[in-house]
Amino acid sequence: MSAHLRTALELAARAVPALPLRAGKVPFGNCPGCRDNACGGRPNMRAAGPCRCPGICHGWAAATTDPSVIASPGWAPVWRRAQAVAYHPGGAGLTIVDLDHAEALAWARETLPATKTVTTTRGEHWIYRGAMHSVNAVQPGVDIKSTMAYARWLGPGTGTMAALPDVVRALVVKEPSTVRPGPHAISVPARAMGGECRHRTPTYLDRGIAMAEQRITAAREAVHATVYRTFLAVLSTHGRCGCLTDAHVARLFTAAQAKGESPRHCTDAWTNALTRLGL
Questions:
Q1: From CA 50, how far away is CA 34, in angstroms rounded?
Q2: How are beta strands 124-129 and 162-163 bridged, if at all?
């Protein structure tokens, strides 16, 4: 058994989702069937285990706490090529403040409450108990790594882990706002050609939203992937002309939540679809 595989199994035993890193300290790439997360990702980003793909897939989302997956024959070739081990902080209910240089460290010591720290090649990881969105460059040399992110495993660190403070959560205020149902229309890029959008005819738009609701409601498996693909389809058709309102989005979110999706997963899927389309 390789040292990296042993480390991954030790992390999994402590409920820390682990994954292998290849040369360059980056995750292994998506499988062809899920290139660029075309399948919408896993049903639950906090759950253990990869998506239903052969081998390692989805980069950080391949992190798992299931030893039967980590030590499976399908993963064996990957561990032989692995150069390091990483983990999914958000999946373990953690947030890392990644400090990359001396100025960032000085800022953290003046601003953030003391917590467990891990020395990195360029600075330190300050680890807090609690998960949040991951955002890069919240301050010069400061990244937030939690949900939908990975961090290289560099040992248990020193000090006592503190609860995630509001001052760290407040660092993401510069992050682009996500679209949530509400009383106002959604802001999306206008059509370059101008003029009245054809989607504003009630029958065209309402029929599209109704079909999207039906598609979500009819899902019997892979609900998260179905929700993501449906959001992507709606935004591909209606997302560039300003005809979607929060009432339409609320209908889609309601259908998804009726199938067991949480409000957060709905928001994440919608935001990922916006990002995929460059909206």
A1: 12
A2: parallel
Structure tokens at 184: 């106002």
- A 10 A CB-CB count for 192 gives 6
Tokens of 140: 């010069």
Residues 6+ apart with CB under 8 A from 37: 30, 58, 272, 276
Instruction: For Cα atoms 247, 207, 253, give the angle at the middle one, nearest 5 degrees.
Output: 35
Q: What residues are paired with 94 via a beta bridge?
A: 129
**CA-wise closest residue to 77 among 98, 55, 92, 102:** 55
Report the distance separating Cα 92 and Cα 199, nearest Å.
Answer: 43
What are 225-253's pLDDT values in tens digits? 888 888 888 887 777 776 777 778 888 98
Residues 6+ apart with CB under 8 A from 95: 89, 127, 128, 130, 131, 132, 144, 145, 146, 164, 168
Q: How many CB atoms lie within 10 A of CB 72?
A: 11
pLDDT tens-digit map of 110-162: 999 999 999 999 999 999 999 998 888 888 899 999 988 899 999 999 999 99
Residue 1 confidence (pLDDT): 83
Is a pLDDT exceeding 80 seen at residue 98?
Answer: yes
**Any residues with CB less than 8 A from the CB of 60 and at least 6 apart, and which?**
19, 27, 86, 88, 148, 149, 150
Helical H segments across 82-195, by residue range: 102-111, 166-169
Give the three-state DSSP class for 97.
strand
Task: Tell me what pLDDT residue 48 has.
Answer: 36
pLDDT at 269: 85
Mean pLDDT of the chain: 80
pLDDT of 59? 75
Using CB atoms within 10 Å of the CB of residue 63, give its burial: 0 to 12 exposed, 13 to 18 middle, 19+ buried: buried
